[in-house]
Structures are given as structure tokens and as C-alpha cells.
Design brief:
It contains 12 helices and 12 strands. It starts with a strand and ends with a helix. The protein is globular. It is an alpha+beta fold. An 8-stranded mixed β-sheet has the order 3-2-6-7-8-9-1-10. Helix content is 30%, strand content 22%.
Length: 339
């Protein structure tokens, strides 16, 4: 059932939520951009609907809510360990369609890729999703090509209208009672979505791992500076490393943390004995691209990439992931001619 509501009604609902949930959505961080005099839009805790940024794409994804950049797993002393406490509240997360599809990719990696990850699952089972409609495509988005421009798997959807009201589609029965009790105008609602992007991407149907031998990867040896920003803003990258932090007062006590890692940075493929794989940046680019559109697809039936375009947005060297994927057809042709 759909409703047309104003901000007062929504903020009343938000107040109700906050007794049980933390609310996360894209919000503006003044002075939080890459330069001191620039702003940043990223996910943060909000209290009112007016804090939500609807007209811009968040520069960073929602994933740091479920997989924090640095997450303490447990504390240890000489003779015992203590599991880190879970968040005291559940979470309501506002997601665009591409990020909602990215959540499914995270579920596949953390819940269905062998034994379920305990620390992820205990957060995942305590979230509610509010879908943010997209009435236009943002720069570098290619969600239509990846089939992630629409989603129906949400608890509530929200679309900001030109007159400042909001169209709500509510599937949660408890939340729906709030709108009914507030005597909100019932309205036919379908979440808005984009049907066309300026950027289009085509993954070759005949793509195989043989394209790893293509010469196209060599150019990234000099173009890429292995900063890893593309991985850190990506909503579906899941790599992490483990760090043991020892307290200075007692070298036998400390905590173990799970910290984001990146396949594009130095040290990611270092192994015991001094070995290191994929030392060239082109090799790293090859691994990342083929993992996103080939390996993951073979395992789960869909590409890992959801077409949010954040990697293209943030790359300081203007390397385009979407362009790289579109070049794979030429790579397939190149490899076949060399056989």
C-alpha cells in the first residue's frame, strides 16, 4: 500500500524507529571531502529525513555499516578471549537499487561462500531496508547494463517529490500502521528507477579466463598507481586482512581486528617466505575485473559488479572500469587470433 506523506509524518516515524534502530542514509559531511574545502556525501547515522541526500550519489557505499573498515572481533589476554559486543541497536539502511543488489552480493560472499561469517550474519539479520528511488541516472552509473536498476526486495521505499512530499511504498506491516494512524493520503506508488544510463556496458558472452593473456592489461602497469580507492568505495569488494593489536601496557593482551584490504595495493599477495604474486598493476587490474564479471558470474549466475560507477568517480588516474569491461570483447578476439 502506498502513501503520500510530509516530512513531519516521516520524522515521527524516525523517532519511533530510534528506540530500536540506528538509521543510516547518505548524508552530507561538510568539509569531509578529499580537500579541506570540499564536502562529501557518504553513509552516516541520521535522525531526521531532512538529513538524507536524495539528489547526489554517495561517494562511498553502505558496506561499512555491515563490514566496518576496522572491526574488533575479540579481545584476548594470556589465558582467555572475549568476543566483542554486537551493536546494541538494529539498523534501518536507506539504499538505492544498485546498492540493494550489492547487498545480495555481500550475502553470497559472507553467508553462502562456505560457512557463514558469524560477525556479518549477526549484523545482517538485524537490518531493515528502505529503497531510495532514482528518478535520473548519475554520472558514470551503468546499473541498467548490469540489471540492477530495479529492485522489489525492500521493507519500504521512498521517493522525494518536487513539492517536498514523499511517496512511500510500505511492506512492513508494523510501519504501515504508523501511516494509517497518521491518516496519510493513500496513493498508488511504484519506486522510481532509471531505464537508461549515459554509460552502457556489455560483458562478452564468450568471455573466458583466457583473456588473462591479453596485452590490454599491460597499459595499467603505468596508468594505475595502486591506491586501492576503487576497492574501498566498491559496495561489493569483500577482501580483508587480520591485525592483532597488542596493548603497550601488557604485550600479552590485546585485540584482533578485521581490516579492509585491497587487491590493488602493494602487499596484498605477499606470502610467507618472501613470495609475492601479481606485483604489476596490470596484473592486479586483470584479477579485479575478471573476478567481478567472470569468476563471480560462473559461481553465482550474475556479475559481482552492480554498475554504481563509484570506482570511475573516485579514480585519481581517470581509469574507467566500465570502459575496461567494454574492451574485453577486443581482448577475446585478440586471444582467439593468437591461438
Amino acid at each position: 500500500m502506498g502513501f503520500r506523506v510530509n516530512s513531519t509524518v516521516l520524522n515521527t516515524l524516525f523517532n519511533t524507529w530510534q528506540t530500536e534502530y540506528n538509521i543510516y542514509a547518505p548524508k552530507k559531511f561538510s568539509g569531509g571531502g578529499r580537500f579541506s574545502d570540499t564536502d562529501c556525501v557518504r553513509y552516516g547515522k541520521i535522525e531526521t529525513v531532512d538529513e538524507i541526500v536524495f539528489d547526489k550519489k554517495s561517494e562511498y557505499s553502505f558496506k561499512e555499516i555491515l563490514t566496518p573498515i576496522s572491526q574488533t572481533l575479540f579481545f584476548f589476554t594470556e589465558g582467555e578471549t572475549k568476543e566483542a559486543d554486537a551493536p546494541s541497536k538494529k539498523a534501518v539502511i536507506f539504499l538505492r537499487s544498485c546498492d540493494l543488489h550489492a547487498l545480495k552480493r555481500l550475502d553470497n560472499m559472507y553467508l553462502h561462500n562456505g560457512p557463514a561469517d558469524y560477525y556479518y550474519s549477526r549484523l545482517r539479520e538485524n537490518i531493515k531496508i528502505v529503497l531510495m528511488g532514482c528518478d535520473h541516472s548519475f554520472e558514470n552509473c551503468f546499473c541498467v547494463s548490469m540489471g540492477t536498476n530495479r529492485s522489489t526486495n525492500y521493507d519500504m521505499s521512498i521517493d522525494l517529490q518536487a513539492d517536498g512530499t514523499y511517496l512511500i511504498d510500505c511492506k512492513d506491516t508494523d510501519w504501515m500502521q504508523h501511516f494509517l494512524m497518521a491518516d496519510c493520503e493513500q496513493h498508488e506508488v511504484a519506486p522510481s528507477y532509471v531505464s537508461e544510463n549515459a554509460v552502457t556496458v556489455s560483458v562478452p558472452e564468450n568471455l573466458t579466463a583466457e583473456v588473462a593473456s591479453s596485452k590490454m592489461w599491460n597499459e595499467y602497469d603505468s596508468r594505475c598507481i595502486n591506491c586501492g580507492r576503487c576497492n574501498f568505495v566498491c559496495p561489493t569488494c569483500t577482501c580483508f586482512t587480520m591485525q592483532d593489536l597488542f596493548y603497550s601496557e601488557n604485550g600479552k593482551a590485546g585485540e584482533r581486528r578485521r581490516v579492509w584490504a585491497s587487491c590493488m595495493v602493494d602487499g596484498f599477495t605477499d606470502v610467507a617466505g618472501g613470495g609475492s604474486y601479481r606485483q604489476k598493476n596490470g596484473q592486479r587490474m586483470r584479477f579485479k575485473v575478471l573476478h567481478k564479471v567472470l569468476d563471480y558470474t560462473q559461481r553465482y549466475g550474475c556479475p559481482m559488479c552492480v554498475g554504481c560507477g563509484r570506482c570511475d568517480d573516485i579514480c585519481p588516474e581517470y581509469i574507467s572500469f566500465s570502459n575496461c569491461v567494454n574492451r574485453l570483447q577486443d581482448a577475446v578476439r585478440e586471444v582467439s587470433q593468437n591461438d
